[in-house]
Amino acid sequence: MADIQLPQEPVRIKQIYPVYRTGERTFRIGAQLGITAEFDDPDEQVWTLVHLLDGRSHADVVAGMRQRFPQLSVGDVLEGIEVLDAEGFLERAAPDGCQESDVEPRLLPTIRYFSRFFPVGGNRYRPQAALRDTTVLLLGLGGGGSNMLTLLSGVGFGRIVAVDHDTVEEGNLGRQLLYREADVGRPKAIAAAEAIGRLNSLCAVEPHVRRIDSAQDVLDLLDGVQLVVSAIDEPPFVAQRRVNAACVARNVPCVYGVSMVSRGRVFTIWPGRSGCFDCLNISYSKKDPQFVPQFQGFQRTGFRAPSIAYAPGLWQLSAAVVDEAVRVVTGYAPPLALGVQFEVDYETASGSQLLDWSRFPDECPTCGTGDAANWEIFAAYQPEQQLAEV
To answer: What's the total number of domains in the chain?
Structure first.
């Protein structure tokens, strides 16, 4: 077993998992469905190994095992360690010199969550460092955006540029829980930044009281930004198209969150890695013969929906958006909505992937070399809502 490679640093059983007996010859690691393994261990070799893996050196682990089980070779012990790592139960005690004592206490539970996703060669502290070093542009501070701001701050994003043109109204308070009655009449961006300042001094929130009426308005805010989270939906579809044009122009990924009546949708557009919003328009045009007539009919109505909001549902959507943002920035797990519409069902508290779409580099007018005049859908956007040059 000389080819087994283990990190030089000491390893241990991940502290998030319990180790407990289930019988005279059996024991388990973990207590969650899908993250639990039971070991049939009549001679207690694995039980002993698990308890020796407490952060001591590999040499001490091997010595402890061979003292109790002289018949075991060094390779046998290392193979046992490798099996436990393959099951996802091991972590380095101090990966790359990182110590829990060096971390802000409020962030430790999140780091422990990340440990679930990293093998022994990984570093559970790296996602948190990536979040700290990331600037997010958050567009919209209404029912979704205000809750997203709270979550973005809580998971450890270091800087958030928060944008909204509106003021707090009494009717907002049932779902936009970042605001207080005393904030009624104040700009949402200012009230939100002050609230986060009181909640979390580690997160810098830069407020902007302004409208997003064009792609250029978004471009003006993108300097130093690594990720956009879009929680604006007015005018419907047009708002997302404006944000998309700016993000494609600057090659910045964007996570979109949109709430409907009893469902919400999350989708991520990462220029160069997924289709953009105009590719989605093209995809629908290709796949659904009713898409363009339906869109034209909706546009002709001039319909502007009244506020439709159920706070627990909006929190489900907000959580899905922020988790997707963390996935994009850290890679702790693959994005769920990259080039896919991920739907959150408030009624069943469930989520599912719906339509996925490709990039159309030869046909898309925004992320490719296509001509918008070739697609009826782009003419259906009202003239006053067309994109500014970017």
So the answer is: 2
